[in-house]
Amino acid sequence: MRKPYLLLLLLLPFLVKGQTTYKCVNSGDWGTVTGPTPTWSPSGTIPGGSDTVIIGSGFTVTQISSYQYCAKLIIENGGTLNNSGGVVIRYRAINFGTWIGGGNCEFIGTPNDTVLEGGGTNNNEGNWQFLGPGNTGGTVFIGPTVKVVKTSGDLFLETANWHKPVRVVNYGTIEITEGLIEPLNGSPAAAVSWVQGPGSTLEFCGNGSFPVVATGDTLVADANKNTVIESLYNGSFNITTPAKDYYHLTIGGSGSYTATVPGLITVLGNLTINDPVNFAHNTLLLGGNWIYNGGTLSNMGTVNFNGAATQNVEGTASTTFNSITISGSGSLDLQTNTAFTGTLTLASGAVSLNGPAKMTLISNSGGTGMIAPITGTGGITATFVIQCYDGRTAPSWQTLSTPVQSDLLNDWNASNQPSPATPSGYFYMSGVGGVNGNAENFISVD
Q1: Do strands 181-184 and 192-196 pair parallel, antiparallel, or not at all (unpaired)?
Q2: Sign of the C-alpha dihedral, residues 278, 282, 284, 290?
Q3: Given a cut of 90, is residue 341 above it in pLDDT?
Q4: Whole-model pTM above 0.90?
Q5: Less Cβ around it within 10 Å: N or C end of the chain?
């Protein structure tokens, strides 16, 4: 039994041979290894694919030639890598300093290990390519303290070299404000996936950035309190359909381009809208808050508020929904004025008012908003503006009735009416002239 152990001990020196640690001792080009101020110690040779590279505080290494290689890259606090030519990291990059430049970065890693970590500045603008763990394929991780901010360049999940599945699990913050996340497949194609870990953030430019090149290409974004931000800097785009659900989803940021919802989407947490959105008549299941900050909302279907706790309708702009369903066990609080043109359905829960916000039942030539029969434990406590559209242009009589069971119109005509010039708290006519008239052809209750 001793011979196998002896053989292992004899082989061990050969396994580690060639693995050298190069430490920066002078600021300069990665390839400067001779002369009076070599960049590295030991000097004389350029770091290779099996070596560790350390850039310490106060030193800047500029990589201006073709690709350079290392197994492990460590940028210490106060150190800088200006990557202009391209760098390949075969095992792990640890950055507590500054990583800048326009060159590409390739990450390989080992199966089920962290390929990028540290809390430094990652502003390298070239393409970042995750190739996966070599011939085996598999999963690599981005650490929770990592923050990558890229204003140009794409992020590729690349299987072109080894044709094996690549899976990246992100626990940090990745902001790609003018680039895509997409597969880079050879032939035969292999599946890729980007997985959001709990509390992580991913911002990228949309347009279905996970096109199905191979079976299994997907975005997984339902981990607790992770956030996905999708936008596009030069045109309209489609919201990516995740493998299952989103947790927090933010749409847009530029306020200029329309996002299209391609099908039913479930958001377990908050939905924030900053750009125009075409819902294409699809249903949205929402477990958290609706936060609307502007942009035209078109072709809305039904928004189903299904959360277990209180959900808010909020934001800097007022929302006009099509139909609303409340099916969760929590209530829906109106933090901003809200309206709907379709049907408000309470499968459970309650609609309550918070602050001065109002709920308006829109009435126009296309139809009139309505409240479906309330069943179960549902209830409504809110201030409503209820419109009744009349398309006639000549003065005429109109029969009115209250849409609320057991209420009389006189109950809404408060005795403390203000002057007719400033109607509030009682009926007023609009569209027929007079002191309370305006240009709209409807009769309002306010």
Answers
A1: unpaired
A2: positive
A3: yes
A4: no
A5: N
